[in-house]
Predict the structure of Putative hydrolase.
Amino acid sequence: MKQRHRLIAPMPPGPLDVVGDVHGELGLLERLLERLGRDPVTLGPTGRRAAGRSLVFVGDLVDRGPDSVGVLRRVMPAVRERRAFCVMGNHELNALRVPDAVDHSHWFHGGGVGPPTMPQAVLPPEQRADVLGFFRSLPLALEREDVVAVHACWDAASADRLRGADDPVDAWRRAHDLTPPGGWEAAVDPADPAAADARLVRRNANPVRRLTAGPEHRAPHPFRIHDRVFRDARTPWWDAYAGPPYVIFGHYWRRPGETPAVGDPALPFGGHGPTDELGLPGSDGRRSAMCIDHCAGASWQRRPPAVAAGVAPIATGLSAFRWPERELVFVPGA
């Protein structure tokens, strides 16, 4: 009988070590695990610091970094044996939806030599089905009364729509197909700005996308990130979130050592430093959310192939958040 997985699953009880987006950076993960008092191979506790604590990942284990395969070889058995827990990130979801996509994912599809500035270990083809099965088994959120772990955004209404669902791709497609006759694009002139607005509405209304990629809004003006121009900006949903529960999430890059300016559409943490807690104060006067993506996925920019190609690197690192201590543990990128 096929095992049934819930997309909104219970968080394990007790203290937590919640790890941010790893993005194939096995070396960073090993260093962080050691800082947390854990074995870098088995992920298990090595002393009192990690004893009695559950290890949780907020997704985006893969893509961009040099060894997504190595990361999965550590994390997959630990999650399957319930020695660790993991929620689905948008990169795991993308692998399920478009398994032959090539953006940052040479590690999975192989073929050729891969991006010269982003060398990656390649997964043997005979292991692809097992990896996709693991991705499909991941919940979109882990929740309990005091704390939630989710990849990008905690939205209670979206979570409620997904309760009882057990397949993330089917849930995505069902939401995607709830459109006017002919689809959103057929309802308007493609040259009309309303066409873009319709696509934005559909993306924001998809509960799977909302939890794995977060809501977006039309930016006041187009903006550029690297060589791409964007018209929709990521919405800082945490600015209006008061909890409970406390939300620990990743997805949104927080550049170590930088405090973005308010109003920059490319950086949604305007006015917040990279280690600040987020959200509105709760009844105890303390904030109610924390983003722990500290740009590990950009570490490739700092390596010789990218530097030789003229890529301008940013500061990077990998972090974990200890709950209920609200302690951030950070290891800098090389």
